[in-house]
Design goal:
By secondary structure, the protein is of the alpha+beta class. The protein is built from 13 helices and 14 strands. Bound molecules: glutamic acid and magnesium ion (MG).
Length: about 450
């Protein structure tokens, strides 16, 4: 038996279908490749989750780019159960002269964060909370959230925690969730770009640990029409120039500072348009329905899991300070959305609210589906798009949102997603969920 050859490191980017793709280099070559990166190409931005390139697309067959690894965004662990280490570095896509490429979503997030900081002095702290199903395990049935539900998968959860910890993801918990064979994994809040990098690492490490157990971890928004949905809840809070928490104000309703309130108002205003980016697949819209604890209306609430923006709880046991814990959760997201683009869109929308000095949205209580149209409209409640084509129409109808991006980027994004919707148009929801279960 020969010993293991030199391990490989993947330099990766996550595309508009939220698929993480890249090129592998020998570990000893990583430092050297860091300066000029690995080859990439424009048309990759039009890659579908079905392993095809949308045709026609704005890019065609010519042109080259570079994918430059950001060595601070490296995730390496020997604990996934694979023969060689899991080793992946997130990168930025640039032109051959090193200038930023307009289609790089990681760069879009950096620019959104820089613009927010320049306009307001605020920095974003974020965390991505992922739900997923484990399929192919033929487990004994178990109760939701139960001790047995997690233990029957042993040693999956401790292996996953160990792999995430060694990779530097700073995991918080892995739990058995409400749905059958559904789990959730969280990480510690961190600076926003790092949080999006961690989201990618969490998805791939979870998939690899499950694969090595002989199962499949599926992050599809709905693994079956009747299954409990898999959300990606994006938590955010702010710190000011002096490093002080800026999201909480005990004197304001729900404790929401006026700055954070203006940000939330901007997010709610543009939420119907950005839904296509944060929950961008055909099956996403089977999840975004009332009474599923996902989100369905443009709605801020204090600790209500039906809302699209939820003020999360703070713990004051033994006099703990709420200010540093206080955060808002964006719930209209799933793992078919690219985390860099999702967070960039949320931040751009929030920045619109800050620039316009919008008042904090009302804290809605109650069930919007039981309200009259007039009551909903008084509270500013708008139903989120109910299909992917409707979400694309909502995106194109909001010129503020399309104005954040290069026109060719919007053309690529909408062309890709329209293709996705058209390709599945003849299938029923069962077949569509079956497909996404295997794709994500
Ligand atoms: N599974 C729900 C979703 O689709 C979330 C449930 C929860 O609050 O954890 O977002
Ligand atoms: Mg959950």
């Amino acid at each position: 038996m020969t010993s293991i050859v030199e391990p490989l490191v993947a330099v990766v980017t996550t595309d508009l279908s939220a698929v993480t793709r890249g090129r592998f280099v020998a570990e000893s070559k990583l430092q050297k490749s860091a300066a000029t990166g690995v080859g990439w190409l424009h048309a990759n931005l039009s890659m579908t989750p079905f392993n095809s390139i949308v045709d026609p697309n704005p890019w065609g067959s010519s042109g080259d780019l570079r994918l430059i690894p950001d060595l601070k965004a490296r995730f390496r662990t020997t604990h996934t159960g694979s023969a060689t280490p899991f080793d992946m570095v997130a990168g930025d896509i640039v032109e051959l002269d090193g200038s930023a490429w307009l289609g790089c979503t990681r760069t879009m997030l950096k620019e959104a964060l820089a613009d927010l900081k320049a306009a307001t002095g605020l920095s974003v702290i974020a965390a991505f909370e992922h739900e997923f199903h484990v399929v192919g395990g033929s487990f004994e049935p178990a109760h939701a959230f139960s001790f047995a539900a997690l233990r029957r998968t042993d040693p999956f959860a401790p292996n996953l925690m160990a792999a995430l910890a060694e990779a530097g993801v700073a995991p918080e918990v892995v739990i058995a969730e409400y749905g059958e064979d559904q789990f959730e994994v969280t990480h510690e809040p961190t600076e926003a770009l790092t949080a999006a990098d961690r989201a990618i690492a969490i998805r791939e490490i979870t998939r690899e640990v499950a694969r090595n157990a002989g199962w499949r971890a599926s992050f599809a928004p709905k693994t079956a029409p009747a299954a409990v949905g898999n959300g990606v809840h994006v938590h955010f809070s702010f710190i000011d120039n002096a490093g002080k928490p800026a999201t909480y104000d005990a004197a304001e309703p729900g404790g929401l500072s006026s700055l954070a309130g203006a940000f939330c108002a901007g997010v709610l205003r543009h939420l119907p348009a950005i839904t296509a980016m944060t929950a961008g697949s055909v099956s996403s819209f089977y999840r975004l329905k009332p009474h599923s604890w996902s989100s369905s209306y443009t709605w801020l609430a204090d600790r209500d899991r039906e809302a699209s923006l939820r003020i999360c709880p703070t713990v004051t046991i033994d006099g703990r300070d709420p200010a540093r814990q206080y955060n808002i959760e964006y719930r209209a997201a799933d793992a078919t959305g690219n985390p860099y683009l999702s967070l960039a869109a949320i931040i751009r929308a929030g920045l619109e609210g800050l620039n316009a000095k919008l008042p904090s949205p009302p804290l809605v209580t109650g069930d919007p589906t039981l309200m009259s149209e007039a009551e909903r409209s008084n509270l500013g409640l708008v139903r989120l798009p109910e299909t992917l084509p409707a979400a694309l129409d909502a995106l194109l109808a909001d010129s503020v949102v399309t104005g954040w991006f290069a026109p060719v980027f919007i053309e690529t994004f909408v062309g890709l997603k329209r293709h996705e919707a058209e390709r599945l148009a003849g299938l029923d929801p069962v077949a569509i969920c079956d497909l996404y279960r295997t794709l994500y």
